[in-house]
Amino acid sequence: MKxxxxxxxxxxxxxxxxxxxxxxxxxxxxxxxxYGIQNIxxxxxxxxxxxxxxxxxxxxxxxxxxxxxxxxETLAEVYEATTxxxxxxxxxxxxxxxxxxxxxxxxxxxxxxxxxxxxHHPYKISRVQEITKDDTHLRYVFALRAIVIxxxxxxxxxxxxxxxxxxxxxxxxxxxxxxxxxxxxxPHRLHSRPLFSPRITVWxxxxxxxxxxxxxxxxxxxxxTVHTVTVTGARYLDLLQTFIIPQLQQLQVLQETTFQHDGAxxxxxxxxxxxxxxxxxxxxxxxxxxxxxxxxxxxxxxxDFWLWGFLKSKVYAPAPATLNELKxxxxxxxxxxxxxxxxxxxxxFADRVILCEARGGSHFENYM
Length: 368
What we know:
Blueprint: H1 7-19, H2 24-35, H3 43-56, H4 72-88, H5 96-103, H6 107-117, H7 133-152, E1 160-169, E2 199-206, E3 211-216, E4 218-220, E5 226-228, H8 233-251, E6 258-260, H9 270-280, E7 284-285, H10 302-315, H11 323-335, H12 339-358
Parallel strand pairs: 1-6, 6-7
Antiparallel strand pairs: 1-2, 2-3, 4-5
Protein backbone atom coordinates (compact mmCIF):
# COMPACT_ATOMS: atom_id res chain seq x y z
CA MET A 1 0.00 0.00 0.00
CA LYS A 2 1.29 3.44 -0.93
CA UNK A 3 2.22 5.51 2.13
CA UNK A 4 0.91 9.09 2.28
CA UNK A 5 3.58 11.43 3.71
CA UNK A 6 2.59 14.11 6.14
CA UNK A 7 3.84 17.66 5.66
CA UNK A 8 6.24 17.20 8.61
CA UNK A 9 7.70 14.02 7.11
CA UNK A 10 8.26 15.70 3.76
CA UNK A 11 10.18 18.55 5.40
CA UNK A 12 12.31 16.08 7.39
CA UNK A 13 13.19 14.14 4.24
CA UNK A 14 14.21 17.27 2.34
CA UNK A 15 16.40 18.42 5.23
CA UNK A 16 18.15 15.03 5.45
CA UNK A 17 18.66 14.99 1.70
CA UNK A 18 20.60 18.25 1.66
CA UNK A 19 22.45 17.39 4.91
CA UNK A 20 23.77 14.14 3.35
CA UNK A 21 25.24 15.42 0.09
CA UNK A 22 22.02 15.01 -1.84
CA UNK A 23 22.15 11.22 -1.58
CA UNK A 24 18.77 9.54 -2.06
CA UNK A 25 20.00 6.24 -0.63
CA UNK A 26 21.61 7.79 2.45
CA UNK A 27 18.52 9.94 3.10
CA UNK A 28 16.15 6.99 3.13
CA UNK A 29 18.51 4.84 5.27
CA UNK A 30 19.11 7.56 7.86
CA UNK A 31 15.42 8.42 8.08
CA UNK A 32 14.58 4.80 8.84
CA UNK A 33 17.24 4.66 11.57
CA UNK A 34 16.40 8.03 13.08
CA TYR A 35 12.61 7.81 13.12
CA GLY A 36 12.07 4.03 13.18
CA ILE A 37 9.82 4.03 10.10
CA GLN A 38 10.73 1.34 7.59
CA ASN A 39 8.24 1.90 4.78
CA ILE A 40 8.71 5.66 4.47
CA UNK A 41 8.85 6.04 0.70
CA UNK A 42 10.55 4.66 -2.40
CA UNK A 43 13.62 6.08 -4.14
CA UNK A 44 11.40 7.37 -6.95
CA UNK A 45 9.00 8.92 -4.46
CA UNK A 46 11.80 10.84 -2.73
CA UNK A 47 13.24 11.92 -6.09
CA UNK A 48 9.85 13.34 -7.11
CA UNK A 49 9.57 15.15 -3.78
CA UNK A 50 13.00 16.79 -4.23
CA UNK A 51 12.14 17.85 -7.79
CA UNK A 52 8.91 19.43 -6.57
CA UNK A 53 10.76 21.32 -3.82
CA UNK A 54 13.47 22.60 -6.17
CA UNK A 55 10.88 23.68 -8.73
CA UNK A 56 8.29 25.30 -6.47
CA UNK A 57 10.11 25.88 -3.18
CA UNK A 58 7.35 23.95 -1.39
CA UNK A 59 6.61 20.34 -0.44
CA UNK A 60 2.85 20.88 -0.31
CA UNK A 61 0.57 19.32 -2.93
CA UNK A 62 -0.65 21.71 -5.58
CA UNK A 63 -4.32 22.70 -5.56
CA UNK A 64 -6.39 20.30 -7.61
CA UNK A 65 -8.47 21.41 -10.55
CA UNK A 66 -12.08 20.43 -11.17
CA UNK A 67 -15.13 20.42 -8.94
CA UNK A 68 -14.33 21.51 -5.37
CA UNK A 69 -14.82 18.92 -2.64
CA UNK A 70 -17.95 19.05 -0.54
CA UNK A 71 -17.51 20.81 2.79
CA UNK A 72 -18.12 19.16 6.13
CA GLU A 73 -20.96 21.60 6.71
CA THR A 74 -22.71 20.41 3.55
CA LEU A 75 -22.25 16.77 4.55
CA ALA A 76 -23.86 17.47 7.91
CA GLU A 77 -26.74 19.40 6.30
CA VAL A 78 -27.49 16.59 3.85
CA TYR A 79 -27.39 13.95 6.61
CA GLU A 80 -29.67 16.00 8.88
CA ALA A 81 -32.10 16.79 6.05
CA THR A 82 -32.29 13.12 5.03
CA THR A 83 -33.05 12.04 8.58
CA UNK A 84 -35.60 14.83 9.12
CA UNK A 85 -37.50 14.19 5.89
CA UNK A 86 -37.66 10.44 6.52
CA UNK A 87 -39.05 11.04 10.01
CA UNK A 88 -41.73 13.41 8.69
CA UNK A 89 -42.78 11.24 5.75
CA UNK A 90 -45.66 8.83 6.42
CA UNK A 91 -43.76 5.97 4.76
CA UNK A 92 -40.39 6.88 6.25
CA UNK A 93 -38.89 7.64 2.84
CA UNK A 94 -36.93 10.46 1.25
CA UNK A 95 -35.71 11.35 -2.21
CA UNK A 96 -32.80 13.31 -3.66
CA UNK A 97 -35.30 15.67 -5.29
CA UNK A 98 -36.94 16.59 -1.97
CA UNK A 99 -33.59 16.91 -0.16
CA UNK A 100 -32.18 19.08 -2.96
CA UNK A 101 -35.21 21.37 -2.84
CA UNK A 102 -35.02 21.56 0.95
CA UNK A 103 -31.32 22.57 0.94
CA UNK A 104 -31.38 24.54 -2.33
CA UNK A 105 -28.70 22.29 -3.84
CA UNK A 106 -28.56 20.33 -7.08
CA UNK A 107 -29.75 16.73 -7.22
CA UNK A 108 -26.33 15.63 -8.47
CA UNK A 109 -24.69 17.14 -5.39
CA UNK A 110 -27.13 15.37 -3.08
CA UNK A 111 -26.58 12.10 -4.93
CA UNK A 112 -22.80 12.49 -4.72
CA UNK A 113 -22.91 13.21 -0.99
CA UNK A 114 -25.25 10.32 -0.19
CA UNK A 115 -23.47 7.70 -2.31
CA UNK A 116 -19.76 8.61 -2.22
CA UNK A 117 -19.40 10.61 1.00
CA UNK A 118 -21.98 9.19 3.40
CA UNK A 119 -21.88 5.71 1.78
CA HIS A 120 -25.68 5.50 1.71
CA HIS A 121 -27.61 3.30 -0.72
CA PRO A 122 -31.18 3.62 -2.02
CA TYR A 123 -33.26 0.82 -0.48
CA LYS A 124 -36.72 -0.01 -1.78
CA ILE A 125 -39.68 -0.43 0.57
CA SER A 126 -41.49 -3.78 0.36
CA ARG A 127 -45.27 -3.92 0.47
CA VAL A 128 -46.62 -6.21 3.19
CA GLN A 129 -50.04 -6.96 4.58
CA GLU A 130 -50.95 -4.77 7.53
CA ILE A 131 -51.04 -6.58 10.86
CA THR A 132 -52.60 -5.34 14.09
CA LYS A 133 -51.16 -5.42 17.59
CA ASP A 134 -53.28 -8.51 18.36
CA ASP A 135 -52.03 -10.15 15.15
CA THR A 136 -48.45 -9.55 16.23
CA HIS A 137 -49.02 -11.31 19.55
CA LEU A 138 -50.73 -14.30 17.91
CA ARG A 139 -47.97 -14.58 15.31
CA TYR A 140 -45.36 -14.54 18.07
CA VAL A 141 -47.18 -17.25 20.02
CA PHE A 142 -47.59 -19.35 16.87
CA ALA A 143 -43.91 -19.03 15.95
CA LEU A 144 -42.77 -19.83 19.48
CA ARG A 145 -44.97 -22.91 19.64
CA ALA A 146 -43.82 -24.08 16.19
CA ILE A 147 -40.18 -23.76 17.26
CA VAL A 148 -40.80 -25.83 20.41
CA ILE A 149 -42.55 -28.57 18.42
CA UNK A 150 -39.81 -28.63 15.79
CA UNK A 151 -37.25 -29.16 18.54
CA UNK A 152 -39.20 -31.96 20.23
CA UNK A 153 -40.85 -33.75 17.27
CA UNK A 154 -38.30 -34.47 14.56
CA UNK A 155 -40.73 -35.16 11.68
CA UNK A 156 -43.54 -32.75 12.56
CA UNK A 157 -42.45 -30.01 10.17
CA UNK A 158 -41.99 -32.39 7.25
CA UNK A 159 -45.47 -33.89 7.63
CA UNK A 160 -47.46 -30.64 7.54
CA UNK A 161 -49.82 -30.42 4.56
CA UNK A 162 -49.73 -26.75 3.56
CA UNK A 163 -52.91 -25.81 1.66
CA UNK A 164 -54.44 -22.77 0.00
CA UNK A 165 -56.49 -21.52 -2.95
CA UNK A 166 -55.59 -18.90 -5.53
CA UNK A 167 -57.11 -17.26 -8.61
CA UNK A 168 -55.47 -17.43 -12.04
CA UNK A 169 -56.84 -15.22 -14.81
CA UNK A 170 -56.29 -15.40 -18.55
CA UNK A 171 -54.77 -11.92 -18.69
CA UNK A 172 -52.11 -12.73 -16.08
CA UNK A 173 -50.05 -9.89 -14.61
CA UNK A 174 -47.84 -7.28 -16.24
CA UNK A 175 -45.67 -4.94 -14.16
CA UNK A 176 -45.53 -1.87 -16.39
CA UNK A 177 -42.94 -0.22 -14.14
CA UNK A 178 -40.33 -2.87 -14.90
CA UNK A 179 -41.35 -3.80 -18.45
CA UNK A 180 -39.45 -1.81 -21.08
CA UNK A 181 -38.97 -2.08 -24.83
CA UNK A 182 -35.52 -1.22 -26.20
CA UNK A 183 -35.78 0.39 -29.64
CA UNK A 184 -34.38 3.29 -31.67
CA UNK A 185 -37.89 4.80 -31.82
CA UNK A 186 -40.85 4.73 -29.44
CA PRO A 187 -42.97 1.70 -30.49
CA HIS A 188 -45.94 3.05 -28.45
CA ARG A 189 -46.55 -0.44 -27.09
CA LEU A 190 -49.75 -1.00 -25.09
CA HIS A 191 -50.89 -3.87 -22.91
CA SER A 192 -54.61 -4.47 -23.29
CA ARG A 193 -56.28 -6.03 -20.27
CA PRO A 194 -60.01 -6.72 -19.91
CA LEU A 195 -61.89 -5.34 -16.93
CA PHE A 196 -63.22 -8.81 -16.03
CA SER A 197 -60.78 -11.42 -17.25
CA PRO A 198 -61.92 -15.07 -17.22
CA ARG A 199 -60.29 -16.89 -14.35
CA ILE A 200 -60.09 -20.17 -12.50
CA THR A 201 -59.80 -20.94 -8.80
CA VAL A 202 -57.17 -23.52 -7.87
CA TRP A 203 -56.51 -25.47 -4.67
CA UNK A 204 -53.15 -27.06 -3.97
CA UNK A 205 -51.43 -28.64 -0.99
CA UNK A 206 -47.99 -30.04 -0.33
CA UNK A 207 -45.64 -31.42 2.29
CA UNK A 208 -41.89 -31.86 2.08
CA UNK A 209 -42.44 -35.25 0.40
CA UNK A 210 -45.35 -34.86 -2.02
CA UNK A 211 -47.76 -32.39 -3.61
CA UNK A 212 -51.53 -32.74 -4.06
CA UNK A 213 -53.43 -31.04 -6.82
CA UNK A 214 -54.28 -29.04 -8.63
CA UNK A 215 -57.97 -29.12 -7.79
CA UNK A 216 -60.14 -26.68 -9.74
CA UNK A 217 -63.31 -25.28 -8.22
CA UNK A 218 -65.70 -25.63 -11.15
CA UNK A 219 -69.07 -27.09 -12.03
CA UNK A 220 -70.69 -28.38 -15.20
CA UNK A 221 -73.69 -26.51 -16.51
CA UNK A 222 -76.76 -28.05 -18.10
CA UNK A 223 -75.43 -27.32 -21.59
CA UNK A 224 -72.27 -29.31 -20.84
CA THR A 225 -69.90 -26.34 -20.38
CA VAL A 226 -67.68 -26.01 -17.30
CA HIS A 227 -67.50 -22.77 -15.32
CA THR A 228 -65.56 -21.58 -12.28
CA VAL A 229 -67.49 -21.39 -9.01
CA THR A 230 -66.97 -19.57 -5.73
CA VAL A 231 -65.39 -21.48 -2.86
CA THR A 232 -68.10 -22.12 -0.27
CA GLY A 233 -68.11 -24.24 2.85
CA ALA A 234 -70.03 -27.02 1.08
CA ARG A 235 -67.66 -27.07 -1.88
CA TYR A 236 -64.62 -27.00 0.39
CA LEU A 237 -66.03 -29.93 2.36
CA ASP A 238 -66.54 -31.79 -0.92
CA LEU A 239 -62.86 -31.14 -1.74
CA LEU A 240 -61.86 -32.70 1.58
CA GLN A 241 -64.15 -35.69 1.19
CA THR A 242 -63.59 -36.56 -2.46
CA PHE A 243 -60.04 -35.43 -3.13
CA ILE A 244 -57.77 -34.69 -0.16
CA ILE A 245 -58.61 -37.59 2.18
CA PRO A 246 -58.62 -40.23 -0.59
CA GLN A 247 -55.26 -38.94 -1.85
CA LEU A 248 -53.71 -39.11 1.63
CA GLN A 249 -55.15 -42.60 2.17
CA GLN A 250 -53.74 -43.75 -1.15
CA LEU A 251 -50.30 -42.43 -0.14
CA GLN A 252 -50.75 -44.10 3.29
CA VAL A 253 -49.81 -40.90 5.15
CA LEU A 254 -53.16 -39.81 6.63
CA GLN A 255 -52.29 -40.89 10.18
CA GLU A 256 -49.07 -38.86 10.28
CA THR A 257 -50.14 -35.75 8.33
CA THR A 258 -50.83 -32.41 10.05
CA PHE A 259 -53.40 -30.39 8.11
CA GLN A 260 -52.99 -26.60 7.72
CA HIS A 261 -55.21 -23.95 6.20
CA ASP A 262 -55.88 -20.27 6.84
CA GLY A 263 -58.90 -18.63 8.41
CA ALA A 264 -61.03 -18.11 5.29
CA UNK A 265 -64.76 -18.48 6.12
CA UNK A 266 -65.28 -21.61 3.90
CA UNK A 267 -62.49 -23.30 5.88
CA UNK A 268 -64.25 -22.82 9.20
CA UNK A 269 -67.84 -23.94 8.82
CA UNK A 270 -69.10 -26.35 11.46
CA UNK A 271 -69.26 -29.22 8.98
CA UNK A 272 -65.67 -28.65 7.82
CA UNK A 273 -64.35 -28.44 11.39
CA UNK A 274 -66.11 -31.66 12.36
CA UNK A 275 -64.77 -33.47 9.30
CA UNK A 276 -61.19 -32.31 9.94
CA UNK A 277 -61.36 -33.31 13.61
CA UNK A 278 -62.67 -36.74 12.63
CA UNK A 279 -59.79 -37.48 10.25
CA UNK A 280 -56.86 -35.52 11.70
CA UNK A 281 -57.61 -35.42 15.42
CA UNK A 282 -55.38 -32.81 17.05
CA UNK A 283 -53.06 -32.62 14.03
CA UNK A 284 -54.70 -29.45 12.69
CA UNK A 285 -53.29 -25.93 12.29
CA UNK A 286 -56.35 -23.75 11.85
CA UNK A 287 -58.57 -21.17 13.47
CA UNK A 288 -60.92 -22.65 16.09
CA UNK A 289 -58.51 -25.51 16.83
CA UNK A 290 -55.84 -26.06 19.49
CA UNK A 291 -53.08 -24.78 17.18
CA UNK A 292 -54.62 -21.67 15.55
CA UNK A 293 -53.20 -20.28 12.33
CA UNK A 294 -52.45 -16.55 12.83
CA UNK A 295 -54.51 -14.17 10.72
CA UNK A 296 -52.89 -12.06 7.99
CA UNK A 297 -49.76 -14.21 7.80
CA UNK A 298 -49.02 -14.95 4.13
CA UNK A 299 -45.32 -14.55 4.97
CA UNK A 300 -45.55 -17.77 7.00
CA UNK A 301 -47.58 -19.87 4.56
CA UNK A 302 -45.37 -21.58 1.92
CA UNK A 303 -48.28 -21.50 -0.54
CA ASP A 304 -48.30 -17.71 -0.34
CA PHE A 305 -44.61 -16.90 -0.10
CA TRP A 306 -43.57 -19.47 -2.73
CA LEU A 307 -46.08 -21.69 -4.56
CA TRP A 308 -48.46 -19.21 -6.18
CA GLY A 309 -45.73 -16.83 -7.28
CA PHE A 310 -43.70 -19.74 -8.64
CA LEU A 311 -46.65 -21.05 -10.67
CA LYS A 312 -47.61 -17.65 -12.03
CA SER A 313 -44.04 -17.06 -13.19
CA LYS A 314 -44.25 -20.28 -15.21
CA VAL A 315 -47.76 -20.51 -16.65
CA TYR A 316 -47.84 -17.01 -18.16
CA ALA A 317 -44.73 -17.41 -20.32
CA PRO A 318 -46.21 -16.96 -22.88
CA ALA A 319 -49.76 -16.01 -21.89
CA PRO A 320 -52.33 -18.82 -22.37
CA ALA A 321 -55.11 -18.29 -24.89
CA THR A 322 -57.89 -20.21 -23.12
CA LEU A 323 -58.86 -21.36 -19.64
CA ASN A 324 -58.27 -24.97 -20.66
CA GLU A 325 -54.73 -24.10 -21.74
CA LEU A 326 -54.20 -22.28 -18.45
CA LYS A 327 -55.40 -25.33 -16.50
CA UNK A 328 -53.14 -27.63 -18.51
CA UNK A 329 -50.10 -25.44 -17.79
CA UNK A 330 -50.84 -25.30 -14.06
CA UNK A 331 -51.26 -29.08 -13.96
CA UNK A 332 -48.06 -29.68 -15.91
CA UNK A 333 -46.05 -27.21 -13.83
CA UNK A 334 -47.17 -28.78 -10.54
CA UNK A 335 -46.38 -32.26 -11.87
CA UNK A 336 -42.77 -31.21 -12.50
CA UNK A 337 -42.09 -29.82 -9.01
CA UNK A 338 -39.55 -32.17 -7.44
CA UNK A 339 -39.08 -33.16 -3.81
CA UNK A 340 -35.84 -31.19 -3.43
CA UNK A 341 -37.73 -27.94 -4.08
CA UNK A 342 -40.46 -28.88 -1.60
CA UNK A 343 -37.92 -29.67 1.11
CA UNK A 344 -36.12 -26.37 0.56
CA UNK A 345 -39.40 -24.46 0.84
CA UNK A 346 -40.41 -26.28 4.04
CA UNK A 347 -36.95 -25.58 5.43
CA UNK A 348 -37.49 -21.93 4.60
CA PHE A 349 -40.64 -21.97 6.75
CA ALA A 350 -38.48 -23.05 9.70
CA ASP A 351 -36.18 -20.08 9.11
CA ARG A 352 -39.20 -17.77 8.92
CA VAL A 353 -40.79 -18.81 12.22
CA ILE A 354 -37.44 -18.40 13.97
CA LEU A 355 -37.11 -14.88 12.59
CA CYS A 356 -40.78 -14.14 13.33
CA GLU A 357 -40.27 -15.14 16.97
CA ALA A 358 -37.11 -13.06 17.18
CA ARG A 359 -39.04 -10.04 15.82
CA GLY A 360 -41.80 -10.49 18.38
CA GLY A 361 -44.35 -11.48 15.73
CA SER A 362 -43.96 -8.35 13.61
CA HIS A 363 -42.94 -8.22 9.94
CA PHE A 364 -39.66 -9.98 9.29
CA GLU A 365 -39.21 -10.52 5.53
CA ASN A 366 -37.23 -7.29 5.23
CA TYR A 367 -34.60 -8.91 7.46
CA MET A 368 -34.25 -12.11 5.43
